[in-house]
Design a protein that fits this description.
By secondary structure, this protein is an alpha/beta fold. The protein contains twelve helices and twelve strands. The strands form three sheets. Strands 1-2-4-3-5-6-11-12 form an eight-stranded mixed beta sheet, sandwiched between helices. Strands 7-8 form a two-stranded antiparallel ribbon. The chain starts with a helix and ends in a 6-residue tail after the last helix.
Length: 334
């Protein structure tokens, strides 16, 4: 990818490599301690970010199965979860844990049925679900199968035919090449998924490392870049069945957009929601294009990108505050 994107510019290639070396050598400091676990189901954990709250409305934030969940708690001052707690809510974060080879048959559907729905059921009242990326896809399915107080989708794909034909073809080719090895391992390594993300916008991948090479390593911007790239380059593998369902049935077959996804004994889909729901959609998202959104009647279009809407400089004004305002306006629990 580096060779093809910088074929006509050795200077750009060297700048990008310089940025990569600077990223690898950057100081990280001590790892942050995760929030305490409130409930468990299998390898999944419900981490409690509102342990000090009394009476705050429960919000279960559902991250994607891809990449670790800490993008929602990136740093003390860049944390949607901690900010929601400071507003008087009681946020919880789903931590999917690390699957092993024995989990190879657990597909995306099973993650909702066997992990997410039982965790929701452990709470004393139906929570608001807020799902990010593929976590939003899964949260919508959960909201069709269990009582919840509300559903917020954040950069969540549902109509996978909204991805460009080129993107779907490239992803299909990647999966065709990786599938035999993944099936043998029973897992889909993060490296396979990362290669798929790179294919969506290879030019931007190179350009961001070029830009990092010129940053002051002690600046806030540089520290934030390192934290975000550590998140983007980390993550547990997927069980083989989850990867296969994602690549073949969701992206390849658009089973969600065609109303063919059955979860918890019912067909999941926007038309079957019985709770208040809102859809936050990025118009500049290179990972989850706006055309792939569920397009709920209550839709808010944002200018920030897929990750920027969560941790960017404008995230609080564009997403955090509107999300909190919407949750505050929901009917009180009965």
């Amino acid at each position: 990818m580096l060779r093809s994107e910088t074929a006509t510019s050795p200077e750009r290639r060297e700048q990008a490599l310089s940025g990569l070396r600077a990223y690898q050598a950057a100081a990280r400091g001590k790892p942050r301690k995760p929030a305490p676990v409130r409930h468990r189901k299998g390898r999944a954990r419900l981490r409690d970010y509102g342990a000090r709250a009394r009476g705050g409305r429960p919000i279960v934030v559902v991250p994607s199965l891809i990449n670790p969940p800490f993008i929602l708690d990136l740093a003390p001052d860049i944390s949607l979860l901690r900010w929601l707690a400071a507003q008087g809510f009681h946020p919880y974060l789903v931590d999917w844990g690390t699957p092993d080879r024995a989990a190879r048959a657990m597909d995306v559907t099973a993650h909702v049925e066997q992990l997410l729905l039982p965790l929701i059921a452990k709470l004393p009242e139906p929570p608001v679900l807020a799902g990010y990326c593929l976590g939003g896809t899964m949260a919508l399915a959960a909201a069709c199968a269990a009582p919840v107080a509300g559903l917020a989708l954040i950069a969540a794909p549902w109509r996978f035919d909204g991805f460009s034909e080129k993107a779907r073809t490239d992803i299909a080719e990647l999966w065709h090449a990786a599938r035999p090895a993944c099936e043998t391992m029973g897992l889909v390594p993060m490296e396979v998924l990362q290669a798929g993300f790179w294919r969506l916008d290879p030019g931007r991948t190179i350009a961001k490392y070029e830009a990092f090479a010129a940053m002051d390593p002690d600046s806030v911007a540089a520290r934030t870049f390192v934290a975000m790239e550590d998140w983007a380059n980390a993550g547990a593998p997927l069980p083989f069945a989850a990867g296969a369902q994602m690549f073949e049935q969701l992206i390849g077959g658009n089973v969600t957009g065609r109303d063919h996804w059955r979860v918890g004994g019912t067909i999941a889909g926007p038309a079957r929601l019985t709770c208040p729901a809102i859809d936050f959609v990025s118009l500049s998202d290179r990972i989850v294009p706006a055309a792939s959104a569920a397009d709920l009647p209550n839709r808010r279009d944002l200018g920030a990108g897929h990750v920027g809407m969560i941790v960017g400089r404008g995230a609080r004004a564009q997403l955090w505050e509107p999300l909190a305002d919407w949750i505050s306006a929901l009917p009180a629990p009965r």
